[in-house]
Amino acid sequence: MKALVFQGPGKTSWQEVPDPGIKDASDAVVRVDSVTICGTDLHIIKGDVPEVAPGTVLGHEAVGEVVEVGSEVRTVRPGDRVLVSCISACGRCRFCRENHYGQCREGGGWVLGHLIDGTQAEFVRVPFADLSVHPLPGSVESDDAVLLADIFPTAYEVGVLNGRVSPGDTVVVVGAGPIGLATVAAARLYTPGKIIAVDLAESRLAAARSVGADATVGAGEEPEELVSDLTDGLGADVVVEAVGVPEAFETCTRMVRPGGRVANVGVHGKPASLHLEDLWIKDVTITTGLVDTYSTPLLLRMMAAGRLPSAELVTHHFKLEQMEEAYDVFSRAADTGALKVVLGGPRHDVVTLPA
User: Does the keyword field hold Iron (predicted)?
Assistant: First the structure.
């Protein structure tokens, strides 16, 4: 099969690799129909995630059809159309029993495109299939469903829930890329008083407004002053860092109110300064986290009910074999306006539900 292979920092190739097969009784092999690229993939290529070995197939988000299952798999069978989660869960270890699937200690967690071959390929082996793939209703398009593999669960769990967004809160989202936009959309479910999005690119600020941001501001236009003005000098109740650079994190800590929460979602490749000389007295809570994806079934139901935006987040479509072109467009988002790029396409008949 063809797959995108990481060859070391700064190097990838779309090349022939062996087809995956069943290795463990809990595995499933999925034919990839739709796949997308994550900002984390760009961090890997930059060398920010040294655990990824050269020769690894990248990618951790996909929709496809099950073609083979191991003898212990009970929840899906060949022919099922499924969402492949970015997190794999054994379901047995202490962390999985507590719904902390991202911290699985029995071979799960974030393994696809990280510790084992991932989804940016024609086929992918998914470990622990019973908890790591989700059957999809025909009414949910593949381009929409693939957003539930990572960005929506990450935004919801690591941003909104960790940040404890509540009705009436002032929420600031720093970074209006795909994760930041999903955070804006997910935060609206909790009826905050206002949502403010911060980004360098006007195109992304426009996208933030389209998914529910009440105010937007350029990162170079003194966002701290705007937040201060809109909160009578108090600061934001919740600030979500969705960039993954030190400057963004430090900006978040300056915008939060006493007693507020900073939820870090971004993947950081460099150290960020934690100014405890200012923060120790403010009773600020700072959270970090890798998504667990325990919320995926809930979010899938919400998407099927039309409660989550999706079309606003997908800006570019490519054929699967155009993987390298898609990466180029996605990596130059400031020039191309790319948010989520989707490769491939649906191979099923869409079911239209009666009104």
Answer: no
